[in-house]
Amino acid sequence: MILVISKKATKEEIGKMAQDFEGYVKVVVDIDKEILAGGGKRHADAEQTLLENGSRQDNLWGGGLDLETKEIDYNSIINLRPTQNNPSRDILSENIRKKFDTIVKKLLSV
């Protein structure tokens, strides 16, 4: 289940987002609006949800959160952006990674 989170998520919300992958939540973060869409089987679905809610494509970055280890990853096909100097599935920019981390930690209580 994909949920858009703009304030600290409850345990119930995190549980719903983790339904597709036990112990892991796929997330797409809007680094400008400081919100995220979490859950679902594909980052593209969460990305589409944020786009439909007014986010801009160039502000959306994908990754995930392991709920057991609290490890954040930065790997998603939606991150492939040669025009934004990111020719990788991983987020290469340290600045964008820091923003991504801050938002995930704030909203998902990592």
Give start-end ranges of low-pLDDT stretches: none
- Topology as a string of helices (H) and strands (E): EHEEHEEH
The average pLDDT is 96
SS field, number of helical segments: 3
Write down how many β-strands occur, each being a DSSP E stretch of 2 or more residues.
5
Q: Helix content range of the residues, please? A: 25-40%
Total separate domains: 1
Question: How far do the termini sit from each other?
Answer: 20 Å
What general form does the structure show?
Answer: globular
Q: Give the class from helix and strand content and strand pairing.
A: alpha+beta
Largest sheet: 5 strands, antiparallel
In angstroms, what is the radius of gyration?
Answer: 12 Å
Provide the spatial order of strands within the biggest beta sheet: 1-3-2-4-5
Strand content: 15-25%
Strand and helix layout:
Elements: E1 3-5, H1 11-17, E2 24-30, E3 35-38, H2 43-52, E4 60-66, E5 72-73, H3 94-108
Descriptive report:
By secondary structure, this protein is α+β, with helices and mostly antiparallel strands. It has one domain (3-108). 29% of the residues lie in helices and 21% in strands. The protein is built from three helices and five strands; from the N terminus they run βαββαββα. A five-stranded antiparallel sheet has the order 1-3-2-4-5, with helices on both faces. It is globular. The mean pLDDT is 96.
Give a brief rundown of this model.
The chain has 110 residues and is an alpha+beta fold. Helix content is 29%, strand content 21%.
Question: Any key phrases for this structure?
Answer:
110 residues, globular, five-stranded antiparallel sheet
